[in-house]
Specification:
- This protein is of the alpha+beta class.
- The protein has a single domain (about 5-105), classed as HIT family, subunit A (2-Layer Sandwich).
- It has two helices and five strands.
- The protein has helices at about 5-10, 55-75; strands at about 15-20, 25-30, 35-40, 80-85, 100-105.
- The termini are far apart.
- The mean pLDDT is about 95.
- The radius of gyration is 14 Å and the shape is globular.
């Protein structure tokens, strides 16, 4: 079954796309956690980071380099940004399609709330 992200990649669902090439698509999150919150997804359907295959090595690198490029274009690279990949239920993944959250534009604080 196609995820909502696959439908965005194919143009079946509208999104604010900021970048697209043969391998990846990047679009603004509809519920942003910061002034800049962009999702970078592979055009190929891969459910989770745990489902990456050895032959996806170049694609995984392209996801990171695309996020870097977008961070620079969005003007957040100099001050810093966060890249998040959630994996499966305990990792907080909500959409079963591998994606990077590119978040920035303000101080982001601690990465994970620590339990006492």
């Amino acid at each position: 079954m196609s995820s909502i992200f696959s439908k965005i990649v194919k143009g079946e669902i509208p999104a604010d796309i900021v970048y697209q090439d043969d391998l990846v698509t990047a679009f603004r999150d509809i519920n942003p956690a910061a002034p800049v919150h962009i999702l970078v997804v592979p055009n190929k359907e891969i459910a989770t980071a745990d489902d990456l295959a050895d032959e996806d090595e170049a694609l995984a690198g392209h996801l990171l380099l695309t996020a870097r490029r977008i961070a620079r274009e969005q003007g957040i690279a100099d001050r810093g940004y966060r890249l998040i990949v959630n994996c499966k239920a305990d990792g907080g993944q909500e959409v079963p399609h591998l994606h990077l959250h590119l978040i920035g534009g303000r101080p982001l604080g601690s990465m994970v709330k620590r339990q006492a």
